[in-house]
Write a structure and sequence with these properties.
221 residues, six-stranded mixed β-barrel, three-stranded antiparallel beta sheet, 41% strand, elongated
């Protein structure tokens, strides 16, 4: 009988050992527990605080982005990225300084409008839209034409926001600036058909910009 009892005891001990192994938490190499994540990465999205930035510039002029990491991390690599389609591309590099401050300065050459974001370690935060402008001759239209069909669909009304352009695809976004007033609209019609003018603003767009009539505006897009 004694050998039989020993065999049973060994079986019980083996079963208990397997149970303990099943309930023991496993940490895979290269992973961190949630309470260690902040220390491992040095920053989270909420830690990135945007500062004063210059995001509306003429092509070839200096733009800038400033901010800080609230945790005060020093010596962390920081990236400035620009959205292009569905992807992000890095346009400048920096390193956090005393107090977690960072800064970027760059000269965009191509006109256009794109979202920007900053990455510090695993943290990322969008910080605004970069608008790179050029000057364009524009005019406007509306009264006497309300109710007419637009080349891109729909009909022109006093409240229609948009611009007419000869070749830009319908629906293309265009950012217009006059002084401190900025508006982002889409191509809704074809024109203008007067020499030397690149865009025709709808009446509602003209009013938003407080634009007089014929002249030049800053255009990104």
């Amino acid at each position: 009988m004694r050998p039989h009892l020993n065999l049973r005891a060994r079986r019980v001990a083996t079963a208990l050992g397997a149970l303990c192994l099943a309930i023991t938490p496993v940490v895979l190499p290269g992973t961190a527990r949630s309470d260690d994540t902040r220390a491992a990465h040095g920053a989270v999205a909420a830690d990135i605080a945007p500062g004063q930035s210059r995001l509306n510039v003429l092509a070839g002029r200096q733009a800038s982005v400033h901010g800080r990491v609230r945790s005060g991390a020093v010596g962390r690599p920081a990236l400035l990225q620009r959205r292009s389609g569905t992807a992000w591309s890095t346009i400048d590099h920096a390193t956090t300084r005393a107090g977690g401050a960072f800064g970027f300065a760059f000269r965009p050459q191509q006109t256009g409008s794109a979202r920007l974001r900053v990455l510090v370690d695993a943290a990322r935060r969008e910080i605004g839209r970069l608008n790179v402008y050029r000057r364009a001759a524009v005019s406007w239209y509306g009264p006497g034409l309300y109710g007419n069909k637009l080349s891109c669909g729909g009909r022109l009304t006093p409240g229609t926001l948009g611009v007419a352009h000869k070749t830009l695809p319908c629906g293309s976004p265009v950012t217009l600036r006059r002084g401190d007033r900025v508006i982002r609209v889409r191509v809704v019609d074809r024109g203008p058909y007067v020499g030397g003018r690149e865009f025709d603003l709808t009446s509602a767009t003209r009013q938003r910009l407080h634009f007089g009539g014929v002249g030049s505006l800053l255009v990104a897009g």
